Amino acid sequence: MTGHLLALLLSLIVVILPLRYGCMDIIGGHIVRPHSHPYMAAIWAKNSVVCGGALVEKQWVLTAAHCELNESEVRVVLGAHQPSVNENEQQVFKVMNYFPNPQFGSCSKENDIMLLKLNGIAKLNKYVQLLPLPDSYEDIKPGTNCKVAGWGATSSRSTSKYLRETTLEIVNRKRCEKKYEKYTKINSNMLCAGPRNKFLKRDACKGDSGGPLICAGRYSGIVSFGIGCGRRGMPGVYTRLTEKYIDWIKKII
């Protein structure tokens, strides 16, 4: 009887654990060299970074549709290593228009992609540069090394003032589907990524939402959702930059 009760309790815990969009931030990462990721955009509101993004054109940032942004408060900070201070390298903009993908599903987690049109033109220099959109739409093979960066709390829950990065690898989609089968459907428009060593805690979390996933040197995905942060054996899920999304982006910008 005791064994049956324990199994029942464990199954209930699995069912009620919520999906998280994007824990606080990069788990198991390291502080990057200042301004070594000049395409990164810090989306700032309520005195903190609420999401990340990538500058894909001089007036456009690509991020996640699930980022809930109050239009009057949002600022997009480019050229930042420490967004909480006024660095000379920074360029700060308001958002002129929001373009979430019209097929975004907050329950299904599908089509989690959004464009932000800035209220000015970014000046490209050593500290602010574009991240090229992919020109190839082949699926990313399992085992491919990827990097994801963002601002926020570390695995120790202390707040990081600086941009941090961690290394992940692409997880087989079928395996990922099984991990998420009780929560949501994983499809070909999504990528799953986690640490190569299952005993390491490496992940992207809530403060990283919308940030770019760079695989084999190519812009491949956008931080979307997961279950908890850095949970052993549970990969994070990313919006995959497929041909249909690139076509949608090009029609808008």
TrEMBL record:
InterPro entries according to UniProt: Peptidase_S1_PA, Peptidase_S1_PA_chymotrypsin, Peptidase_S1A, Trypsin_dom, TRYPSIN_HIS, TRYPSIN_SER
Signal peptide (residue range): 1-18
Domain Peptidase S1 residues, every copy: 26-253
Domain of life assignment: Eukaryota
Keyword field: Disulfide bond, Hydrolase, Protease, Serine protease, Signal
SMART domains: Tryp_SPc
A Pfam entry, by short name: Trypsin
Gene Ontology MF terms: serine-type endopeptidase activity
GO biological process: proteolysis
Protein name: GRAK protein
